[in-house]
Each structure stands twice: as structure tokens, then as C-alpha cells.
Amino acid sequence: MAASSAVCRLRFRGLGLLDRFCFGLEPQTQGRFTSTASAVKAQTENTTAKAAKESKTFQAIQEERREQAERSVLISCPSKINENKFLDYLSKHGTINNHFFYNSYGAYAVVEFSSRESIASLKESTNIPAVEHEAAVPFKSRLLSLKWPGSQSSNHPMPKFKVQSPPSISEISQLLSEKNSIDEQLQCLTETLELTEENVSLRFLVCSLLRDIAGAYFPECIIRPFGSTVNSFGKLGCDVDMILDLDGIYATSQKKGSGLSLEYQVKRGASERAVTQSILSVIGKCVDQFGPGCVGVQNILQARCPLVRFSHQPSGFQCDLTANNRVAMKSSELLFLYGQLDPRVRHLVFSVRCWARVHSITSSIPGAWITNFSLTVMVVFFLQQRGPPILPTLDRLKELAGPSDKCVIEGNDCTIVSDLSKITLQQNTDTLEKLLQEFFEFYGNFPFNKASINIRKGKEQTKPETTALYIQNPFETTLNISKNVNATQLERFVALCRESAWLLQQKENLNQSSDSPWGFAALLVPSVSSGAGVKNRRKRKLEPASSRIKNLLDSLKIKGGETVAKKGSANSSR
Ligand code: GTP
Ligand code: MG
């Protein structure tokens, strides 16, 4: 029996990530601060280190980020900028805590002051531009443009521009092929794709800029990012999912006892959904007409979860603004928590998401595809099935919750423990290579026709309905998060799982070779199952399809030789 170990160690395991998610400053950035502008506060490591050592809860991390964003501005600037002069100019308004440059349709700087008064002072000295032949909407946002008269001298060092987009698949493949083991490849993949400290800051800043628009109507509102921006599984280039949180408006400060009370007169809507739609439609219009940098605004109000979609050009982010969506925020917290418990969780999720994207199992266009959210839940479920389990069930996370963790949203009990140190994990020493191989075997053989995936119980359950793929919604337990997936997409997923499991068993794919992708990189080559050719695959003698599939099935010991097609038809005849 595997020994149990109290997870004080969890704190150490999670530190790397918390570091990135809480005010992490890169050493070179810190160095640049001290040497560039005298008035810029020398950023010491204490904020970062403290935040990490305190092992903050998900909510505390989000709050710190949000507050940091409120003290920040986004400035369009010349690309050949004299960084010292720029910082000296801005620091007249107060101490600068942090800054970085990046490129997106031009050069931009994110500048974080140490106090919000600096923002007010900066705005005081900023002008509304006089535009020729057009008229300006006089909305004073924190998206600014730096006017730099005359040409800049070229003998000052150029600032370092931080990359905000992921490398191409061929670059990733090349990088991975240089590694010495599949475990190293998966770790490298996570490091290459994960959101950087700067990218997360920029995401929170975009939410904060949008809040300034919505705040004109609802001053107490907050716009919070959720989904992959905060759940620790986001990759560079992923969208920014936002929630317009109006909960602060409902909070009352009224003291009981006097007998008298006042109420606001309000307009009424037919339902909560109708009110959400109406609020989002007005904010969508403001974003479209007054929001600098916001383009392509679409009101998608008839969706199950009404939203406003737009592109924020200065950051390059695609944004989805929803309202009244607290369960989704809780799901993000849950995934974040699972990602913190063991580093293998994030490595496996990043690899499976990347593999799925390359083979068009997932797509950025809505449709019958499996979503990244569903895939992540599938990885969590797989890790709950290991012997001993790598992840606890959701029911266990609920049992460990304290009184302050109690959370009921629209009648759904969404309680989970927030203090990670209360979670005890069993010792499991599986390598990433083994986990990846067995993930593909697990889902290559999963009885999708009759069983559902349930991370609350950590066990397969009987499918309550005949949809192709049933993954129980973690918190709204009567819902299926993969209802959209059709039998064809599921069959493709299963076929690719089988093929990938088979490929990982082939000796030639397990040995590092200089001239072709190997290990995980070999799985990123277009596949037979994904409908693309195999021309680019490693120079392997192709077997006829029949014997290739036979090998595949033999190697996976599929129960009773049942094929995916059969499973599909059994499914549809129910
Ligand atoms: P990306 O593909 O990287 O954007 O991943 P993501 O996790 O952000 O997924 P997405 O943008 O599709 O959805 C954002 C969040 O909404 C998810 O993380 C979930 O918390 C939630 N979500 C997405 N799909 C569903 C669903 O079908 N049901 C429920 N309840 N929540 C969902
Ligand atoms: Mg998303």
C-alpha cells in the first residue's frame, strides 16, 4: 500500500507556479529597474517571495492581481524608445513598481505604479487628442499614447520586448526533439506554452480597462478574468474570458433596528437571463463606441451563456465578456487547485491540450468539438483513476472545506477546500511518460457508450443520457459539459488516442534522433486518424492500413475487440 504523506510539501511544489501568478518579477526586469530611472523604486524580491511563501488562496491571488492592474496603465510608444527617459518622465507621477514592453500592432508598455494616486496625477496631465477631419469621444481611459517629439537618438539600448504569442508547432517540435526524455519534453512544453508573468498582468489590465467602461453604469462592478487566464492551464494566445461581477451592488450596508428602510427604485426584467442580456447589450454598445482599442464587438446574447465578444487590439487578446457566471469562476478555481496539487497535472494537461489542438480535436470555433475545459476534466479524471490516485475526488475536496469555504451558487453546492495544506496525497511515482502513454490507452478503451466521466466521485458512472460523450459538470451536476460533442468527433478522439498510444510504444519513437521528431514530438505530426497524410511522419515503412490497425488493437488489448464504430452504433441505437 502506498504511504500517505501530509502535504506540507504541496506548498513547495506549488511555489514555482504561485511565483508566476503572484507579482513575479524576472531577475533581469528587476535589474533594469534599478539601473534605469532613479525615482523608480528598486523592486526587491520580497513581494514575490512573500506571496509565494504564504501560499495564498486562489481568491487572494486574484485580488492582488486585480489591485495591481488598477494601478497600471497601457501606453502605446515608439519602438525605438529611450527607456530611461520614458521611466523618468512617468515617475514624476509616482513610484513605478514594474514595467515591461511588448509588440502588438505596434510597441506598448505596461507600467504599474505603486499607488493609484499616480494614475490620477498622470491622467491630469494627459490630453484628449485633437483629431483632424474626425471627432474624438472624450473618454479618459488608461490606454494612452506617448508623443515623443523629434527623432530619437539611436545610441541608447533598445528595451527588451516580451513575447506574447506561442511558438509555432514546428518550433515546438524542434525544441522537444532536442530533449533527452519524454518527461523532459513534457516539462519543456509547459514552460514554452504557459502564460508568462507579463501576459497574465496584461490580461488583468485589459479586464481593469474594461471595468472603467462598465463602471460608468455600475460603479461597484468588477470585471474578473476566469477560464484559462487564471486556472493555470492557459497557453500564450488563449482568449480572455471575463465575468462582469455585480455582486458588490447587492451587498447592503443598511443597519437593522430603526424600522425604516429605503430601497432603490429599479427597472424590472422578465427573468435574470433577460436582465443579464440587457446589461450586456448596453455594455457591449459602450465597448464598441467608447472603448479605445476594442474592435469587432459582437453581442452574442442568445447563447446559453450570453456574452459580448470583441478583440482588444493593443493587447492582441480575443475577449469574451459574460455576466452572472459565478459557477464558471468556481470551476476555474477548482482546476487551479488541481493544477497546484502535483506538477504532473499541468504537464499532462498542457501536452494533451497541445496534442488535441494539433490534430483538430479542439478548435477555436464553436461546434461539435471537445473543448479544452472538457479535456482538462478528462485528465483530472484519469489522474483520479491511478493506483494510487494522483488527484483527490471533488467530494473529498468538499469534505476538507472549512466553514469559510462554504459556497452555494444558484442552488448548487460549489464548496471546495481553499487551503491546500489540508489536502493529503498518496504517494504515486508514475513518470510523465507512463502517464501520457496510459492516458491514451485509458481513453482509447473507455466505454463511452455506457459510462460517464465524473470527477466528483472519481469513478465512471452510468450515462444518464445518450449523448456521445458525457462528462458531468463538476458543480451543476445535472449538466453535461460535453453535450456538444457528436459521435464523429468522439470517434476521432478515440482513434487518435489509440494511434498515439501505439506510436509511443514504437521503439523508433522512444529514441532520441537528430533528424526527426521523437517521443511526444512524434505525436504532433499529422496523423492518419486526423485525416491528414502521414508523409511527414518519421521515415517509417508504412504498413497496410489493416495490419496497422490490427497492431494497434493488439497492442492495446481492446476488450473483446470491440471497435469504436461498434461503440458508436450501439450508442445511437439506445
Ligand atoms: P481555452 O480554450 O484555453 O480558452 O480554455 P478555457 O478553459 O478558458 O475554456 P473556454 O474559454 O472555452 O471556457 C472558459 C471557462 O468557462 C472554462 O474554463 C470553464 O470554467 C467554463 N466552461 C467552458 N465550457 C463550459 C461548459 O460546457 N460548462 C460549464 N459549466 N462551464 C464551462
Ligand atoms: Mg478561455
TrEMBL record:
Q: What Pfam families does UniProt report for this protein, alphabetically?
A: MTPAP-like_central, PAP_assoc, RL
Which GO terms are recorded in the biological process aspect for this UniProt protein?
RNA 3'-end processing
UniProt entry keywords in alphabetical sequence: Coiled coil, Magnesium, Metal-binding, Transferase
InterPro entries with a match to the protein in the record: MTPAP-like_central (IPR054708), NT_sf (IPR043519), PAP_assoc (IPR002058), RL (IPR041252)
Which residue stretches, if any, does this entry annotate as coiled coil? 172-199
Gene3D superfamilies registered for this protein in UniProt = 1.10.1410.10, Beta Polymerase, domain 2
Bilayer-crossing regions: none
SUPFAM superfamilies the record matches = Nucleotidyltransferase (SSF81301), PAP/OAS1 substrate-binding domain (SSF81631)
List required co-factors.
Mn(2+); Mg(2+)
Residues forming the PAP-associated domain are 434-478
* The UniProt record lists the keyword Nuclease: no
> Per the database record, which ranges form the RL domain?
57-126
One GO cellular component term of this record is: mitochondrion
Residues covered by the Poly(A) RNA polymerase mitochondrial-like central palm domain: 182-340
Q: Which GO terms describe its molecular function?
A: metal ion binding; poly(A) RNA polymerase activity
- Give the protein's recorded name: Poly(A) RNA polymerase, mitochondrial-like isoform X1
Whose protein is this, by species? Carassius auratus
Q: What is the lineage of its organism?
A: Eukaryota, Metazoa, Chordata, Craniata, Vertebrata
